[in-house]
Write a structure and sequence with these properties.
The chain has about 425 residues and is α+β, with helices and mostly antiparallel strands. It contains 15 helices and 16 strands. The strands form 3 sheets. It has an 8-stranded mixed beta sheet. Bound molecules: adenosine-5'-triphosphate and magnesium ion.
Length: about 425
Amino acid sequence: MGNNIQSIRGMHDFAPAEAQTMRMLETKLIRVLNSYAYQEIRTPVVEKLDLFKRSIGEVTDIVEKEMYAFEDRGGDWLALRPEGTASTVRAGIQNGWLHNQQPRYWYLGPYFRRERPQKGRYRQFHQLGVETFGLAGPDIDAELILISQRFWQVLGLPRHCLQLQLNSLGDADARARHRHDLVDFLSQHETGLDEDARKRLHTNPLRVLDSKNPQVQDITAQAPVLLDYLGEQEQEHFAALQASLDTLHISYQINPRLVRGLDYYNRTVFEWVSTELGAQGTVCAGGRYDQLVEQMGGRATPAAGFAVGLERLHSLAEKNLLTEIKVIDIYLVALGDNAVAYTMELAEQIRTELPNLAIQMNCGGGSIKSQMKRADRCGARLALIAGDDEVAQQQITIKDLLGDQPQRTVSKDALVELLKVEN
Ligand code: ATP
Ligand code: MG
């Protein structure tokens, strides 16, 4: 039918296998975060539009072009969240979360950007984000990088799969001096810039370095780099981080062109980039944002964090995760009305005693032949079969569907113990 309603372009359904591998991926990452003693927070999907304008910056791709913003019925301007740092800072200031014992947080959920949909770039995508507050030193930068590296490890990604790129954006003073020279440089090459870059030349010149247009990139390849403008303290911070990474045997490349697409970053910025994902190669990105809390109305608080794009990470790790997929362990075959309630009750007992087993009940009746066919097709390891005889004797028949164990009939009470031994 031609007029069926379809999902929105760039917003996707997850089929069961995809949802299951995504859930496995998330579970593995959350386990890592627990091992570093980070705590989960949850914030709303919708926020006031101004929150993102003020934090991400008015002259950025996200705010200028990618936001899903709308006026609600009360006349307030709201937006679907395009990223998680702004909301975390807002919630942190509002709820007093920034100055307690352990301001190290993580969150996971859907984010929204109205970008041109393509592989690795969606209009609804998922991020796992990590944010820390009150820690100004390079030690926390190193910890964030360690966490992200452990993410790749627990997913079984080979080391060469993702490369760490590192840069320092310095502090306000360094950026002001750099901005001056950058504007000079870009003005000399203005004719080669595209419309976007020309517009930003005077509003937000650093964003020109972030352009995805190859022609603009050719020009900016020669532009002054922020690294040459760092003050002494910023240099020390960056050097100390590199020394830590060396000690921890984490390899990295310094990329002086890495500026990130959001305005709030300063000092350390980093990205983990894969060559296996085509143009959308950045899987994880983050850095420090020491001024943002104050800028948003809170007490001055240094901060650092990162976010992982889960769809991109999933496409790198999917093959490994698929090998762990398991859907059904046991299929219950019930012949006759008495057997249905009997096997259902038995299944409840097994679920109580062995909650890790996935047990599927045959529903809708059918002959032994058709039920066994379903059992075979679903991939279960065992079929448990009950008919009138089994019900009368309080027994159950076990058929091994994958191995070559002979079929056996055991007492109902012995079953759970037997399954426990085998699992
Ligand atoms: P890109 O340069 O690829 O547009 P970005 O700098 O806009 O990325 P961030 O805001 O840093 O991205 O978001 C962190 C991560 O979230 C990205 O590295 C990426 O993995 C993922 N991500 C960002 N936008 C999208 C999107 N539209 N679809 C899927 N994943 C995305
Ligand atoms: Mg982007």
